[in-house]
């Protein structure tokens, strides 16, 4: 069997982190969670991930700014990692805004965990 895919979850809500972990771990994904964009960049510097679920509204560094920084990394593999936005105020952004920031997809809150799983699988297959 192939190695389990590693997903980095960037989300400042513990409730959403726990629910997301439970859904994705059921599918055998290896989950690491952080609370802000700065921590995403710190984790990414030390480890490889197959996908990032990125909350847009986080303290310290938001998901848009963090994704833009990921896209400029010198490590091409890390710079091209799929990043899926998780957002509650998607009305403030268009899919075009997300694409310009380098995000591959987005899921709106409140999270539909079937859609979350389907979106993750789509980008990891």
Main sheet specs: 5 strands, parallel
Distance between the termini: 14 Å
Proportion of strand residues: 15-25%
Named CATH topology: Rossmann fold
Record keyword descriptors for this entry.
125 residues, alpha/beta, Rossmann fold, five-stranded parallel sheet, 6 helices
Brief description of this entry?
This protein has helices spanning 14-26, 37-46, 63-71, 76-79, 95-101, 113-124, and strands spanning 6-10, 30-34, 51-55, 83-87, 105-108.
Plain-language structure description:
A 5-stranded parallel sheet has the order 2-1-3-4-5, with helices on both faces. Strand 1 (6-10), helix 1 (14-26) and strand 2 (30-34) form a beta-alpha-beta unit. The chain has 6 helices and 5 strands, in the order E-H-E-H-E-H-H-E-H-E-H. It has 125 residues and is α/β, with parallel strands linked by helices. It has a single domain (7-124), classed as Response regulator (Rossmann fold), CATH 3.40.50. The chain has helices at residues 14-26, 37-46, 63-71, 76-79, 95-101, 113-124; strands at residues 6-10, 30-34, 51-55, 83-87, 105-108. The longest helix has 13 residues, at 14-26.
